[in-house]
């Protein structure tokens, strides 16, 4: 994953949302973090693609909450739409259901005529496309959030500590059934860094680790924030100096 492919989220609303979440230490916001539409291909109103997309999203809405993951497709030949939705590993059925419900309606509002789109929340992720992306690492739709606060003390050691925690979590997540792991590392007495990594569950164990490791590689080694969030079409990585996830 080349640095040039990483898009910096400079969306103002997004940054404000993030700031508020950090300020409150909230971990279960229902507000979407970000959405992204594939603009190259559009469908027309009442077309077969639209019918298939409605069917797909309804199926995802019904099928995801019990296990936290569903992937499905609807339609035939050039009107086929492929989609998946994934709730974060620790999210219970009710919260997963609430998140997917919101995602289903907001993705349609956010990407009204696009043949592909994706939307991220803290609790869940949803993606659909007219091409079959299952099992393939999406290393194009990767977004790194701006730094809110820089590390001032010993940034090199902090970088080493953060990346060693995240690489360890990457190995753990790739072997976990939900392709998800959280953990913490005490870097100084009473100073801890918390990490979370996750993949969409269509990925193999091997591809999950490859996706997370490449995403960790995006973190700049000199201008390191005290917290950072990178979201992607196949995996997410986040660390903070406070516990931002439920056990
Ligand atoms: C699809 O729609 C977007 C937004 O309306 C537009 O910018 C884009 O050119 C369209 N794509 C094609 C292939 O028509
Ligand atoms: C999709 O395929 C159908 C027949 O299979 C054809 O009539 C239609 O024009 C195609 N649509 C596009 C956008 O290629
Ligand atoms: C579910 O959401 C509620 C309200 O946002 C929150 O208090 C609770 O901790 C969440 N539970 C889990 C398991 O995420
Ligand atoms: C963090 O440091 C970088 C490089 O020194 C600087 O460009 C950026 O504005 C700083 N960000 C904050 C939030 O202070
Ligand atoms: C943090 O990184 C420094 C520099 O590499 C290292 O000496 C220290 O042992 C690390 N701390 C932990 C808890 O891994
Ligand atoms: C940080 O990254 C730069 C450019 O990628 C590299 O030249 C430098 O050696 C790295 N520094 C450390 C401490 O890893």
TrEMBL record:
<feature type="domain" description="Gnk2-homologous">
    <location>
        <begin position="31"/>
        <end position="133"/>
    </location>
</feature>
<dbReference type="Pfam" id="PF01657">
    <property type="entry name" value="Stress-antifung"/>
</dbReference>
<feature type="domain" description="Gnk2-homologous">
    <location>
        <begin position="139"/>
        <end position="244"/>
    </location>
</feature>
<dbReference type="InterPro" id="IPR038408">
    <property type="entry name" value="GNK2_sf"/>
</dbReference>
<dbReference type="InterPro" id="IPR002902">
    <property type="entry name" value="GNK2"/>
</dbReference>
<protein>
    <recommendedName>
        <fullName>Gnk2-homologous domain-containing protein</fullName>
    </recommendedName>
</protein>
<keyword id="KW-0732">Signal</keyword>
<comment type="similarity">
    <text>Belongs to the cysteine-rich repeat secretory protein family.</text>
</comment>
<feature type="signal peptide">
    <location>
        <begin position="1"/>
        <end position="25"/>
    </location>
</feature>
<keyword id="KW-0677">Repeat</keyword>
<keyword id="KW-0964">Secreted</keyword>
<dbReference type="GO" id="GO:0005576">
    <property type="term" value="C:extracellular region"/>
</dbReference>
<dbReference type="InterPro" id="IPR050581">
    <property type="entry name" value="CRR_secretory_protein"/>
</dbReference>
């Amino acid at each position: 994953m080349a640095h040039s492919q990483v898009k910096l989220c400079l969306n103002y609303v997004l940054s404000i949302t993030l700031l508020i979440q950090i300020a409150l230490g909230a971990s279960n916001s229902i507000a979407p973090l970000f959405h992204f539409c594939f603009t190259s291909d559009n469908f027309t109103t009442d077309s077969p693609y639209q019918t298939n997309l409605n069917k797909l999203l309804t199926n995802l809405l019904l099928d995801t909450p019990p296990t936290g993951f569903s992937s499905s497709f609807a339609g035939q030949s050039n009107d086929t739409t492929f989609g998946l939705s994934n709730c974060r590993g620790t999210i219970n059925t009710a919260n997963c259901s609430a998140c997917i419900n919101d995602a289903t309606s907001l993705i349609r509002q956010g990407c009204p005529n696009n043949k592909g789109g994706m939307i991220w929340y803290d609790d869940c992720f949803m993606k659909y496309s007219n091409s079959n992306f299952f099992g393939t690492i999406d290393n194009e739709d990767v977004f790194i959030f701006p730094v809110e606060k820089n590390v001032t003390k010993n940034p090199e050691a902090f970088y080493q500590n953060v990346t060693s925690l995240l690489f360890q979590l990457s190995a753990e997540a790739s072997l976990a059934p939900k392709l998800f792991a959280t953990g913490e590392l005490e870097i100084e007495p009473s100073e801890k860094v918390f990490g979370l990594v996750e993949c969409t569950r269509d990925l193999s164990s091997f591809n999950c680790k490859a996706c997370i490791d490449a995403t960790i590689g995006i973190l700049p080694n000199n201008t390191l924030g005290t917290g950072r969030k990178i979201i992607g079409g196949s995996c997410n990585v986040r660390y903070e100096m406070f516990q931002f996830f439920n056990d």
